[in-house]
């Protein structure tokens, strides 16, 4: 009839644009819902710094937050062990003058200043709340924290399960009868409950020449296990950045599992992810462990140099005399 035939291309592009806009809107709404599911806790964190962005991750040993399906006896009764202590403390710092982030594990048994108590183990400061832990790190070690996150046993298990597990390696068949951990020689894919047992292990044994042999330095080994677990989680996230459904599952699990400092914003979390995703360096904070019924850790070796690096010219947390 002489009329031009309508092209399907503009119509297709229009539907693609509408679908893309709808997808972005749903993603934005979902992100907003996730963000508001995260618990917040007031903590005196540092003012924004142009030179560094420092996070503190605290693994809580709250016995009231045992992973679903775990052996409760391996964790202890919340009535017998009330409150929460810091079972793991990891500092992640991204400096403007460094290409890579720094990751440093802080010994939980380190002697620090605890407000209202005096000299005490760092782990016990969490009994007074995470703000007390931040204060102790500032006053004792000169570490200024910009953002803090607290996660409990159940939270760690949920995040690991959301990722489909994490991989760890063992040179020998290994076990910890106290936590229920059991590993074959080589690489093992741990589920959430097993990952928590790995991070809590203090009584590791290796099967060598047909005999179970206790591993020395149990507290140091546990600290190393916690660092390996963090690295495994980061590696798993980096290898699955394209799997949006799986990342969403992790985000939903993590949003209920993590408590953040009240001043932390979504952009801060995004920057942290970018920092870890672009690479990081692990630095050991050397220390000695005193023998006794209650282990006590004290800094030694080049620990002062590490603290100087983390201090990054902080004015809110001046370095103590023994560090300078």
- Overall form: globular
Q: What count of helical segments does DSSP give? A: 8
**CATH architecture descriptor of the domain at 39-152 and 263-311:** 2-Layer Sandwich
Mean pLDDT: 80
Helix content: 25-40%
Largest sheet data: 7 strands, mixed
Describe this structure as you would to a colleague.
The structure is a single chain. With 324 residues, this protein is α+β, with helices and mostly antiparallel strands. The protein has helices spanning 8-37, 130-141, 153-162, 192-200, 218-239, 244-257, 266-277, 303-311; strands spanning 39-41, 52-60, 86-95, 101-105, 111-114, 118-121, 147-151, 166-170, 174-176, 181-183, 186-190, 205-208, 211-214, 258-261, 280-283, 287-290, 296-299. Strands 1-14-7-2-3-4-15 form a seven-stranded mixed beta sheet. Strands 10-9-12-13 form a four-stranded antiparallel beta sheet. Helix 3 crosses helix 4 (192-200) and helix 4 packs antiparallel against helix 5 (218-239). The longest helix has 30 residues, at 8-37. It is globular and about 55 Å long. The model is unreliable at 15-30 (pLDDT under 50).
């Amino acid at each position: 009839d002489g009329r031009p035939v309508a092209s399907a291309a503009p119509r297709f592009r229009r539907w693609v644009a509408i679908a893309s806009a709808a997808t972005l809107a749903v993603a934005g709404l979902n992100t907003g819902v996730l963000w508001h599911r995260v618990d917040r806790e007031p903590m005196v964190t540092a003012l924004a710094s142009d030179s560094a962005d420092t996070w503190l991750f605290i693994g809580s040993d709250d016995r009231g937050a045992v992973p679903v399906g775990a052996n409760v006896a391996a964790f202890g009764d919340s009535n017998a062990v009330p409150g929460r202590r810091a079972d793991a403390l990891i500092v992640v710092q991204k400096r403007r003058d460094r290409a890579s982030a720094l990751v440093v594990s802080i010994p939980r048994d380190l002697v620090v200043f605890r407000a209202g108590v005096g000299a005490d183990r760092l782990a016990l400061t969490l009994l007074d709340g995470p703000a007390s832990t931040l204060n102790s790190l500032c006053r004792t070690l000169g570490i200024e924290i910009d953002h803090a996150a607290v996660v409990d046993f159940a939270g760690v298990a949920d995040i690991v399960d959301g990722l489909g597990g994490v991989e760890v390696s063992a040179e020998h068949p290994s076990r910890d009868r106290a936590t229920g951990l059991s590993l074959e020689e080589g690489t093992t894919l741990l589920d959430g409950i097993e990952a928590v047992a790995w991070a809590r292990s203090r009584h590791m044994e290796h099967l060598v020449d047909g005999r179970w042999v206790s591993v020395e330095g149990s507290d140091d080994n546990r600290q190393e296990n916690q660092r390996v677990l963090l690295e495994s989680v980061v590696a798993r996230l980096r290898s699955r950045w394209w799997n949006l459904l799986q990342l969403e599952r992790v985000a939903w699990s993590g949003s209920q599992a993590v408590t953040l400092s009240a001043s932390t914003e979504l952009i801060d979390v995004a920057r942290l992810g970018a920092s870890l995703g672009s690479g990081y360096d692990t630095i050991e904070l050397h220390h000695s462990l005193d023998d006794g019924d209650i282990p006590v850790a004290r800094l030694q070796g080049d620990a002062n140099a590490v603290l100087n690096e983390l201090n990054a010219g902080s004015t809110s947390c001046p370095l103590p005399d023994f560090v300078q």
